[in-house]
Amino acid sequence: MKYIKSYILFFLMVFAVTGCTTDDLKDDVNDLKDRVTLIEEQVKLLNDNLAVIAYILDTQNKTISEVKNVTDNGEVTQKKIVLSDGTELTLTIGKPGTINEPEVTVGEDKTWYINGKPTGVIAVGEPGKNGEGYPEFRVHEGNWQVRFGDGEWKLVDSGENVADGSLGDQFFVKAEVVDDNFVVTMTDGTVHTLPIVADLACAIDKTDITLDAEGFWVIEKGARVEVPVKIIGENPQVTYPQGWRATLSKLDAADNKGNNYKLYIYAPAAAIKTMNTRAAANNTSDITVQVQKGSFWAVDKIKVKTPKELNTNEERYNDGQTIRVGGLEITRELYGDVKAVPADGKLTEGGVYFISESGKRLTYSLGISGVESLVILPNTEEVSDIKLIITSQIYFTNTLAFQNVNLNNSIENQYPLRAKGTVGKITLDNCKVNNLSIGKGLMIPDVASTDHLVSFEMRNSEIKIEQSGAGMNIMFNMDCDLLTFENNIVYYSGDVPKTQEYANHMTNFKVFSGQNKIIKELIMNSNTFVDVESTGTSGVTGLVWASSIGKVTFNKNLYWQSYPATQFIKPAPITTTVLLRGIPKKEDYVAEGSSNYGYNGNATMKTFQLCFGSERPATMTELIVVKDMFVTFDKSTGTFIPKDEYKAYGAQR
What we know:
Elements: H1 2-57, E1 64-72, E2 75-83, E3 88-92, E4 104-106, E5 111-114, E6 117-122, E7 135-140, E8 143-148, E9 154-155, E10 172-178, E11 181-186, E12 191-195, E13 201-204, E14 216-218, E15 224-232, E16 234-239, E17 245-250, E18 261-266, E19 286-293, E20 296-305, H2 313-318, E21 323-325, E22 328-330, H3 332-335, E23 346-347, E24 351-355, E25 361-364, E26 371-378, E27 386-390, E28 394-403, E29 405-409, E30 417-419, E31 424-429, E32 432-434, E33 441-445, E34 453-459, E35 462-465, E36 469-476, E37 480-486, E38 489-492, E39 506-525, E40 528-530, E41 544-549, E42 552-555, E43 558-561, E44 576-581, E45 591-594, E46 597-600, E47 607-611, E48 624-625, E49 630-634, E50 639-642
């Protein structure tokens, strides 16, 4: 029995101690929250008041338009100062506090000092020279830190171990409106009298402008841009850097923000030359708008520059710029550092490669682990031919992007490209594809049931098919969100004799083959197809064959068949060539298709059919059959130039 009593007593003691500890912890947490809140308020008060001090020391021709009182329980505790450029400052009328915040002063050399240490940053504006900004503070891990502008945060000397206390202000004793002036009395007894000029405003509306890390608006060479401006006053003027041009135009009516002018900025089209003009600003970057009322001026500025003079794609990429390949954006942030091109051309890893030598020969022979991404691009416009020999399938999980690349498939009876995962993107721009295997094609998924492409894009390219036979797919058996096929030439290079020999033709060719797969959007415009039939022995028709195509655009394509072989296939001859299969017939279906032309050299065949069966939407017209369409027809060089009446159609070369 005594053991039971002992255990009861023990547990009561534990609960008592635990309860006491929890209460103490709650008190400590609440005290910590109060302390953190107090320090945050002190940081905000310090930074707000420093912004006011910076304006007093360096107005940069921004006048005060209005001063508003902020009260607390009937007592004025703050002043809201509205400047002529729309900026709003907050001045807090404080008392000496006990939080150990940094001491901020301006020395005789007119630079900022923090805790008695010089910063070298100019605080006081002078005629022809503005101040260089003001300090901004924060508390990080219990210590004061400071920076100027967007610079690096640095520890404040003697700013360690911030202690709580009472809020305080080290700058202002009094701030009041006297007649048309705002009069501020500092703690050292200095009095500053600042004019309040109503009905004077100059504010460039920068809300829809993206500035770079240094605060510049980067404008392409030769471009004209515009930005709204609010101007109230007389004699508005604009000055601009040498080589630039800028004009102001008054609007018929102000917008909902009060902007009543448009500022038009014209970037230089070439290297900047010295210009003798009174409108040239005394700097290399500021576009300045100013307006006056009596003897007062209001001014606002925006810094502008053109992109850096970078001569190669690699330089632009390393500079953080975007390299565009078709609709794909290639950036260092997304794809990492540039890879060095091996001297022997044997690629040992994925990544981004910029090729500086036209005719450079690369070889891909990695295993099934493959690469995340492989991007091969010309470094300059002079690099027009990059050779890529594919000796093992390119497995990839993210992106394949090739430009000016001649892809030569050296794998027998295989698709050279193999997608893994659900985020894959393929972009081929100005490429040539050779030596694809009959019965296979260009691209296949690793796992057909799960893998799919976000986008497949082929533009300005050429696919040459040298072997006759049945079956070839550019893209096989996987879903695709966006399939874009534009301005390409696809042709069978062999002769097509007028004979019943099936082996002398390329049949059952498909850009997309996926009986149970979905294309969310198909864009197929301005392509030329020569002697690649979309029918074959199995009766599976369709240049594009999917279970469904969510949205389709199919315009200005040329389809040429010298002498189709399908009439001679037994026992059930197929006598119609179908181009699209998988388009639902719906009244609200988004579809566009027109100005597609075809030639059929076998008079006994029926004709072409745009959509399978009777499913053609009303917004798409059937392919138009013509008797001839080319003025130059050369399979040895892949040159197919339409006659004048068709020169706006097919691949544009």
